[in-house]
Amino acid sequence: MTLTDQGFMPQTAREIEQELIGSITSIPGFENIPTDGSSAWGNLISILAEREALVQGLALAIWQSAYRATATGFSLDMAMVNLGKSRNLARHSTVTLTLFNRSSDSPVTVPSESQARQSSTGVLWETLEDAEIPALDTLLAGLDIDTIAWQSGNTIRATFNGTPDLSAVAQGDLLLISNAAESGNNGTFVITAINTGAYWVEYTNPDRTDNTDDEATDSPATADIEDTETSITVPAQSLSTGPFEATPGSINAIATPISGWSGVSNAGSALIGRNQESDSEFALRVAQELVVAQGSTAEAIKAQLYKLADVRYVSAKENRTATVDSDGNAPHSYRFTIVGGTTQDIVDTIGRYGAGGIQTNGTVSGTYTAPEGRTETIYFDRVDEINPYIVVNLTINSAYPSDGDALISAALENVAFEAGDDLYNYRLIQAAANASVPGIEAIEIFQGTSPAPATKATIVVAPDEIINITEDRITVNS
User: 435 and 330 in one domain?
Assistant: First the structure.
């Protein structure tokens, strides 16, 4: 084996074998020994040649492991340490789950590592903390049922004797019927409609499709009504690491049965994780970062700003002329407009990677201290957030879930905008529809910059403004 100006050059087993034959047969008395493959000497030489070839192969691997272009696995990690770079490790996808108690009059404990499933994908998610769901709240107890009457499909109406106050009852609450004359009328049912003046509620009974089991005046049945808004939120992650998506409402099945835990959902989308960076991805990313680090263009600095914690948006402009441009930028200057990140981190990054003698523009400023002690004032702009008011009017049917309003609200919160993007009404309609909440028949959305908007007109924003939809300004009427 040799180390040349072209690198480390290991020998093949055949080359080593020929060298060994030449060396041994040059020894006096060994000139005529047999070295073919059928002889003892030939087999011994082949074994020695193979073992030396393995040693040279190991030496080659050790030599290559010192260079990021040829290293692999752990050796690549070690080679990158010298550049201050590390591999992006695998990361779980994360989400906030809402856990429901729709049956237990006692608090329900759901321990950490309990699992829920996305019905559409089969992906499992596990809770990261112990959670205690509050006990089911009985709104009304011992109601005297007068009549039980089929309406249509699986919809049944129960009318009560007396004048019970049904004002606290909501769609999605549970009706618990017992003592009915017809056994098919007993059970726990989801309330779909309420009439507080006529003292009746309607509910879905999947076992009834006609009026055969109707109970006329003064049915012996009694009922309790339970509030299903007994829930708690808990952080969760995908069971496996990797980039798993979960749109609002898609995590909807319990995979770890626990008495009293009767429902699960995710109001918001999951934060998507990642697989471990492969050798080729790691090497390519580092190569690109090293190229970026060598530049002082606006785009190169922009790339560095995006690496800062919590920076979500960066726009960059350059004025390369010797005069003030039409946007008021100084000659030979940058202007960065940024969402997120701390002022000092941003100032330090612009100062560190910006070219000497190039000015900065903006309304936010901070002091950058260079390694040699020189100080410089760095300027940049922040984006002004516009938080619109949104009113959602839904036409629903009995399939609409009790947490449907929260799912629609979360879907609207997750609509992403960049600086200068106008708010078009169709984007909100599209987001609400894509949430795939069951039981919605029609969607109407109003938007505006003042409370209780009554218009669907586009909200126009300036280049230095960005739309940010927040839960406190969303009203869902279902």
Answer: no
> For residues 294 and 353, what is the distance between their CA atoms, to the nearest angstrom?
8
d(CA 438, CA 263): 15
Q: Tell me which residue has tokens 């010298």.
A: 82
Q: pLDDT tens digits, the chain, 478 residues: what are they?
A: 566 666 667 788 888 888 888 888 889 888 888 888 888 988 888 888 888 888 877 776 666 666 666 566 666 666 666 666 677 778 899 999 988 887 777 899 999 999 999 988 899 999 999 999 988 778 898 999 999 999 998 899 999 999 999 998 888 787 889 999 998 898 878 888 999 999 999 998 878 889 999 999 899 999 988 776 677 889 999 999 988 988 877 888 999 999 989 888 887 788 888 888 887 777 777 766 665 444 567 878 888 888 887 787 788 888 888 899 888 889 988 899 888 889 999 999 998 888 777 899 999 999 998 877 888 999 999 888 889 999 999 999 988 888 889 899 988 988 888 778 889 998 898 888 888 888 898 899 999 999 999 899 999 988 778 898 988 899 999 8
Number of domains in the chain: 5
Give a yes or no: residue 105 inside a domain: yes
Residues in a beta bridge with 234: 97
- Give, in degrees to the nearest 5, the angle at Cα 117 between 112 and 118: 140
Is-above-0.90 flag for pTM? no
The whole domain housing 252 covers 92-134+230-265
Could you tell me if residue 272 is inside a domain? no
Q: Please name the amino acid found at residue 26.
A: S
